[in-house]
Design brief:
Elements: E1 8-12, E2 20-25, H1 36-40, E3 47-52, H2 68-80, E4 87-93, H3 95-106, E5 113-117, H4 128-150, H5 159-162, H6 165-169, H7 174-181, H8 186-190, E6 196-201, H9 209-218, E7 223-227, H10 240-251
Helix pairs in contact: 2-3
């Protein structure tokens, strides 16, 4: 895959002499703006770069149907173009965690440590009944798609009935979305060697706390915090002050 693509970013910093750089990596369908309230809290301590992944925000589409590994390689190339600093810290949310996990495993020299908030990238554990429903839904979709094609009808209309909101709204990024959600990053996570802080919301239905428990066991030496009453998105909203405290404690030198 060609991993050349421009990465737009915004800088938040009030300390021109900061020797710490924090890369804030947003979730699917968002942009660096999603992290602005959190990043602003670290303006005096670090150079905060709020990136837009290729295909999101102000960044152009990738040249191919990228995997998270391709995104990580593109970020690594971009990091090489930045002035050197003593410490580079990755803070990701959901999809941004997928890319961060790949980056830390593929290019360990680039990151000093990493914070993963509501990290995606693992396969859900389903009950037997849930597995049956999932298989039935998948089989029904495939059969209907074939029927629509044979009868000259547009199978794209089925996405409204069977596709998730992210799938329906993916547009030109749909091939990437399909590739990304099929990935299981378990083996990749095992290769991470930098310190990692995991943060999950107790009410998160998209990346449930069980993901945090699994990532905690996969990433040697990682720490796990589960925030009560927070879900996949409120963890960056109502829960941002608690998240900021966790990040602040974690990124202290020698912590």
């Amino acid at each position: 895959m060609n991993s050349d693509a421009a990465i737009a970013f915004r800088t938040i910093s009030s300390n021109a002499d900061a020797d710490t750089r924090i890369i804030w990596a947003h979730g699917w369908g968002q942009s660096g703006q999603a992290f602005e309230p959190l990043a602003t809290a670290f303006a005096a301590r670090a150079e905060n770069l709020l990136i837009d992944f290729p295909g999101f925000g102000a960044s152009p589409l990738p040249p191919d149907a990228w995997s998270t590994g391709d995104y990580a390689d593109a970020v690594e190339q971009w990091l090489r173009t930045l002035p050197p600093v003593t410490r580079t810290i990755w803070v990701g949310h959901s999809f941004g965690c997928r890319v961060g996990i790949q980056l830390a495993a593929r290019h360990p020299e680039r990151l000093e440590r990493m914070v993963l908030i509501a990290a995606a990238g693992l396969k859900r554990k389903r009950t037997p009944v849930e597995q049956l429903r999932f298989r039935w839904r998948t089989t029904s979709f495939k059969l209907l798609k074939r029927l629509y094609t044979l009868t000259g009808r547009d199978p794209a209309v089925l996405s409204g009935r069977y596709g998730s909101a992210d799938y329906r709204n993916a547009g030109a990024l749909r091939p990437i979305f399909v590739k990304v959600i099929s990935e299981d990053l378990s083996d990749v996570a095992r290769r991470i060697s930098c310190p990692v802080q995991l943060v999950f919301g107790s009410n998160d239905a998209e990346t449930p706390p069980e993901f945090g428990t699994r990532y905690n066991s996969l990433i040697a030496g990682s720490k796990l915090a589960i925030l009560d009453h927070q879900d996949h998105y409120t963890v960056l909203g109502d829960g941002r002050h608690a998240v900021a405290k966790i990040i602040s404690d974690f990124i202290k030198p020698n912590s």
